[in-house]
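pasting for ref
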Amino acid sequence: MMKGKLHEQQNEETTLDNLMEGFQLIGFDWRYLYVNDAVVKHSKYKKEELLGYTMMEKYPGIEKTPLFDILKICMKERIPEFFENEFTYPDGSKGWFELRIQPVPEGLFILSIDISERKKSEEKKAEYIHGLEKMLFMTSHKVRQPITQIIGMSKLLEHEFNSHDDLKQITRYMKDSLHSLDLFTKELTAFLNDLQDRVNDE
């Protein structure tokens, strides 16, 4: 009977080890009791470098983070929690994870899903939208004046009493306005190309 339960437990752990999602069991003393292969990959440690060690030993300063505040509440109040967290590794690199925390008799059971790529896509989208909003602001301010000038000059051309000098001056103003529009068109093209390059490079 005991052998059957042990075999069943080993099968369950093997199944968890092969999942893409991270599964970790944290004891009441904040030691890693179990981590699957996905957690090992996310943590940038080897499995033997995690098991038996506390979270504070592997990630110095984690006890001062909002993440740990939530973990303490879950551990003390025995309540589940779900949230997204940006995690900073000891080497300075960062990753985004979706965390589901569930109190269990041993301490806390944490399901973690790496959503770093999704967050990068969201950040790119937000940056691109911000760039487009900036483009619209530029357009409304830099196009309005030369367009208004051209409209004004075109109305002056409708008057029959315009002298030759008046026509030359109106033509010069219109050329200046068109030149401004041409410069802005080049500026806008360069801005959009730069925006596209920055979004694609990240």
